[in-house]
Amino acid sequence: MQPQVSILYEQWQIMLHWVNGNLNNLSNQHLSQTVLPNGNHGVWILGHLIASDDDLTLYMGKGDMLFPAYQQLFGAGSTVQPIENYPPIDILRQHWKAVCDKNEQLYQSLTDAELNETHAPIYNTKASGICTRLYRQTA
After folding, report:
1. Helix, strand, or coil here: 124?
2. How many CB atoms lie within 10 A of CB 63?
3. In terms of C-beta density within 10 A (0-12 exposed, 13-18 middle, 19 or more buried), how is residue 19 classed?
4. What is d(CA 40, CA 81) in angstroms, rounded to the nearest whole number?
5. Are 42 and 30 in contact (CB under 8 A)?
6. 132: closest CA among 14, 124, 79?
7. What is the Cα–Cα distance from 30 to 25, expressed in whole angstroms?
């Protein structure tokens, strides 16, 4: 692995270790609970993690998202819904693992030169503030 990619990969591994360490200690019942009254719940947070990490391959020009429908359910601008409106927690856990596995392969294939290329440009829009090209395409 090349030096710049190695640093980015190490940071991703640290984040993944922290997230999975916490996620693996939470039961499905815990994920079903709201953080605050009328606030979001663990199901939405897990779905948001999937949506947020799934677009990395698209952003880097290395492939498509595995779960594009999650952008509307859990992505920027989505609103928290009752848990029953989301995929089952066990499916979300499987999808999170699939996204992590996909991103592992991405990091293994990246080069330092690719990190220095221009990727999804950032636009400043009046309606939604600053957003990437991906967000503009899905919004």
Report:
1. strand
2. 12
3. middle
4. 8
5. yes
6. 124
7. 9
What residue type is 123 in one-letter code? Y
Q: How far, in Å, CA of 70 to CA of 117, rounded? A: 27
Closest CA to 68 of 84, 82, 89, 47: 47
Phi/psi region, residue 121 (left: phi>0; alpha: psi -120 to 50; beta: rest), is beta
Q: Look up the pTM and report it.
A: 0.84
Instruction: Please give the structure tokens belonging to residue 36.
Output: 């605050």
97 phi and psi angles, rounded to 5 deg = -60, -40
* Parallel, antiparallel or unpaired: strands 129-132 and 122-125: antiparallel
Q: Count of CB atoms within 10 A of residue 54's CB?
A: 25
Radius of gyration in angstroms for the set of CA atoms belonging to the chain, rounded to a whole number: 16
User: For the chain, which domains are there?
Assistant: 3-138 (1.20.120.450)
pLDDT tens digits for range 66-110: 999 999 999 988 999 999 999 999 999 999 999 999 999 999 999
DSSP H helical ranges for the chain: 3-24, 28-32, 42-54, 56-59, 69-74, 89-109, 112-115, 133-138
**Burial letters for 28-37: b for 16+ Cβ neighbours within 10 Å, e otherwise?**
eeebeeeeee
